[in-house]
Design a protein that fits this description.
It comes from Geothermobacter ehrlichii. GO terms for molecular function: nucleotidyltransferase activity; tRNA threonylcarbamoyladenosine dehydratase; ubiquitin-like modifier activating enzyme activity. The mean pLDDT is about 95. This protein is about 30% helix and about 20% strand. With about 270 residues, it is of the alpha/beta class. The protein folds into 2 domains: about 60 residues, Roll (Ubiquitin-like (UB roll)), CATH 3.10.20; about 180 residues, Rossmann fold (3-Layer(aba) Sandwich), CATH 3.40.50. The protein has a 7-stranded mixed β-sheet with strand order 8-7-6-9-10-12-11, with helices on both faces. A 5-stranded mixed β-sheet has the order 2-1-5-3-4, covered by helices on one side. The longest helix has 19 residues. The chain contains 8 helices and 12 strands.
Length: about 270
């Protein structure tokens, strides 16, 4: 029968998962089948995806990508690896979305931000103290390459305008809006809508403070527009931005992007 071992097709006569392990990598102490760890033997079935890992072993480069996505649901990686996602702003929302999508294995990320890393960013943004003063796009690219070197990253240290948004994000399958200011959000959405008609946008608004995480939701607001947040909690005096709720919103955005890339509606219904 034909199965996949560490993402490579293998023809085998092994009847069980552990028999396959013993045949191909007997020192493997982690066995993952179709995205789930196996702790007891089971029959091997046609098309099964099996990953064999030895704890502490640094795998060869040709195997590493397969091992990075070993816990994915089968069929997801092949689809997201072909995708391109744009992220407008890599601050609290955008940096967390970028990290999630890199771990997911999205094939190409287009990042745009004009700002630098400064100390007040570190309470919620995916940067480090030794990156203070670096352009956020440069620092984010460094961090993403350490997470997943198989993701192509295109960084633009630039202030986004109505003129350059379609040029920068024209090849993106989905755009993530991760700005702070309402006027900049409006500019981005309108210029992308006009320059890249029909392409979906996942935006966010309403995640300040420390209210209940369950009030942050994903809503469909148009044919190709999705909005994440609670709809009310704007940042202001006495209402700061902190890692937990910003992270909740960012991961709503990343999950919405994933659903769109695999053909599902980001809000919850099948597309």
């Amino acid at each position: 029968m034909k199965v996949f071992v560490n993402e490579r097709p293998v023809d085998t006569e092994a009847a069980s998962i552990f028999a396959l392990r013993d045949q191909l990598k007997p020192d493997a102490d982690i066995v993952i089948r179709n995205g789930f760890p196996v702790d007891s033997d089971a029959p091997l079935r046609e098309g099964d995806r099996v990953v064999l890992i030895r704890r502490g072993e640094i795998p060869p480069a040709e195997e590493l990508e397969a091992l990075l996505v070993a816990r994915h649901t089968p069929g997801v990686h092949e689809r997201v690896k072909k995708a391109c996602v744009g992220i407008a702003g890599v601050g609290g929302l955008g940096s967390a979305v970028a990290v999630a999508l890199a771990r997911l294995g999205v094939g190409r990320l287009i990042l745009a931000d004009f700002d630098i890393v400064e100390p007040s960013n570190l309470n919620r943004q995916q940067y480090f103290i030794d990156q203070l003063g670096l352009p956020k796009v440069q620092a984010m690219e460094q961090n993403l390459r350490r997470i997943n070197p198989y993701v192509a990253i295109e960084g633009h240290q630039v202030r986004l305008t109505a003129k350059n948004v379609p040029q920068i994000f024209g090849q993106a399958d989905v755009l993530v809006e991760a700005f702070d200011r309402a006027d900049q959000k409006a500019m981005l959405l309108e210029s992308f809508r006009l320059g890249c008609p029909g392409k979906p946008v996942v935006a966010a608004s309403g995640m300040a403070g420390f209210g209940p995480a369950n009030t942050v939701v994903t809503r469909r607001r148009g044919r190709t527009f999705y909005l994440v947040g609670d709809g009310t909690s704007a940042a202001g005096p006495g209402e700061g931005l902190m890692a937990p709720r910003v992270g909740v919103a960012a991961h709503h955005q990343a999950n919405a992007v994933l659903r769109l890339l695999i053909g599902l509606d980001a809000e919850g219904e099948d597309a």
